[in-house]
Amino acid sequence: MKMFKYIIGSGAFMLLASIIGTACTDGNDWDVDSAHDRLFSVTASKISISAQPTSAEISWGTVPDAEYYVIEYSTDSLYDEIEIGGTQHSVVLGKDKSIVETPYVITGLQGETKYFLRMKSMSSVKADSKWTYLEKYSFKTSAEQILNEVASITGESAVLSWTEGAEVTSLKLAEAKDDVEEVDTTYIELDAAAVAASSYILTGLTPKTKYSVSIYNGDVKRGTRTFTTTESYPAGYDIVNVSDADMLNDIFANPANYIQDNGGNVVLVFANGSTTDYMGESMELTIPADFKSVIFWGESGDTKPVFMPKGLSMAGSHDLIRFYNLDLQNTSSANDYIVNFNVEGTVGEILIDNCNISKTRGVVRVQSDGAKGSIGSINIDNCVLTDIGSYGVLQTKVSGFTLNSVSLSNSTVNTLSAGGVLVTQQNNVHISIDACTFYNCVATGKSFIDINKMSNVTVDVKNTIIGQLYSYTAESTIKATSVKGIATTTNLFTTTDCPYNSGYEWGEILSVSSTELFVNPAEGDFHIQSASQSSVAGAGDPRWNE
């Protein structure tokens, strides 16, 4: 019996020891299938991408025990069933174990292109993680811009250039219209010569037309620019490119060298970005009688070419003297003129259009003992005039000289210290002002238009705003015209800081000052404040209504 109990007890003890021994084995010490010893995946919410036109910076949260990372991107969709590198456009990065830290920059991308992306963490001792995809699955690069600003724009042509060595195949040219996506689209295949030169000349364009041009590499757009052609060079004119003041001297000293087959009609082209400074010359610049018509032409571009004429005169008979798309200036409002007619001559028309005029004593002056003859018309259109001195926009005070008409339109005059904007001592002159904005003009006690008691002078002013008079104080007043009753006005408005002498008013007097009417007149911003727009609708220089 004792033996039986002993046997039972021994067996129970051995069984218990076996159970205890098993229970003391660490569950984590079990043999593990290496196929399931996998790295954690990159957390999708921690992936961020900053995309540029041809690159993208990727940042992510690092994974414990990861030795490196593999990134795959493609313009095709990516998902788990697709093997690594399995799409037509897949690019796999990091298989060489080079991506070991965040962030990482992908280069060689295409602008305005949608890319799908996935990534995984990798190790030499553990299985690689599962793929992690972007939360929004894809990202898009921003627009690329390899086109430089369009240059050498004329009425019919323009020069394109782009980043040297860039891969390009074609151009797309179309009129740029807000309400129509494509109008008369032209596709241009670039030949080897154009690609090598990184340049192409567009021809056959329409004058005064806005265009959009895009450059492509295959189907990928690599840049877009808009530009507007100038008006076309007039037919029947010789074209001469002016390099500097010395050349201009030579043109007027030796006109026969520059007159070709157009009877003395010449367009003098000033290059975009150039400055032709005549201020240091000892003599005034005079257009010789050999030239029938002269156009001083500023090539279009980012800024208007600067021409400092000192005081251009003209001898003999001329049909047209024109300044177009130029920054006309001298050194200060105390010195010199743009045109100083001081010899004997006749001119059919003096035209200044699409110009900036500044830092000059006067714009057009005919006031010298030597000034004889006539000017048919003086027309200033689409110009901005700033810091004009004591001779104003026009001063013709000489006997025995004929002037038929003066027109100032679609222009802004900002700061003019003269006794009048327009001053004439000629009979039988018609003066017209249309769609203009004036600010800080005309000295107190003087007249906006002074006709010096001449006879048969008519004045027509419409769609115009007149702001503060020059150096306004509470006691300041001016006259609208030096002689009562000569002006006809339509849609003419004057602010409270340009008070008129009693009986010499014109148009409508507003209830606001210049600072209340204009956005920032002291800084040259003459847009109309919203509260006053209805009261002056349709008036002023149109550039401030845009």
TrEMBL record:
Domain Fibronectin type-III, residue spans: 41-129, 141-225
Range of residues in the leader sequence: 1-23
Stored InterPro entries: DUF5123, FN3_dom, FN3_sf, Ig-like_fold
Gene3D superfamilies: Immunoglobulins
One Pfam family matching this protein: DUF5123
Taxonomy, superkingdom: Bacteria
Protein name according to UniProt: Fibronectin type III domain protein
Organism: Phocaeicola coprocola DSM 17136
